[in-house]
Fold this sequence. Notes:
Layout lengths: L1 H7 L5 H11 L4 H9 L3 H14 L14
Helix pairs in contact: 2-3
Amino acid sequence: MVVHYLYDNVLIAKLAVYFDTLKVQKKPVEQAIQQAFGMPPEQFDKVLRNYLSAARYRYYPIQREEAL
């Protein structure tokens, strides 16, 4: 669900900051979330829960090969 949220809100590029902070800089997960998404983990969790409960997911239809 996190990846879905990130794509829908055009935040997927921020994963690079998250992983850099986590793996390269060796910072804790909490700090990586704050650095990448600009909010503490508790707020990020709340945002994700609100996204999930709203049930307004974007989807992108893909044409099947036989339709091409």
